[in-house]
């Protein structure tokens, strides 16, 4: 994969900011969850396409509904981006569900479970040593 230029990095950040504002404040589709965030945006160097990673706080049905709502509003979102950001081409947006936040939360829970079971085992071992004395 090509290394992003400074210009492309700035465009990615600006599109991400504007996309988040549009999703949060302008789209009235009831399918889109209120806790939807834009995790990352990657605009192609030719400005024709854009991948937007979206994170939704909720169950899988809520995530699927939000993705469907965003895909149906893609034309409106594209128009708003064109009005807000002065680019040579307005990219076609492909929404991708980002699972990294949910994965991180799941791993944190598992780590906490392992630490708790280790503490219980250590407490049990201390208790059995005291009984032997």
Describe the structure.
With 133 residues, the protein is α+β, with helices and mostly antiparallel strands. The chain has two domains: 6-98, K homology (KH) domain (GMP Synthetase, Chain A, domain 3), CATH 3.30.300; 99-133. 58% of the residues lie in helices and 17% in strands. A three-stranded mixed beta sheet has the order 1-2-3. A hairpin with a 5-residue loop joins β1 (36-43) and β2. The protein is elongated. The N and C termini lie far apart (65 Å). The relative contact order is 0.14.
Q: Report how far the terminal alpha carbons are from each other.
A: 65 Å
Write the CATH architecture name of the largest domain.
2-Layer Sandwich
Rough outline? elongated
Mean pLDDT, to the nearest integer, reads 87
Please give a handful of descriptors for the protein shown.
133 residues, GMP Synthetase, Chain A, domain 3, alpha+beta, elongated, 58% helix
Give a brief outline of the structure.
This protein has 133 residues and is of the alpha+beta class.
Give the helix/strand layout.
Layout: H1 6-25, E1 36-43, E2 49-56, H2 60-72, H3 74-84, E3 92-97, H4 100-132
Parallel strand pairs: 2-3
Antiparallel strand pairs: 1-2
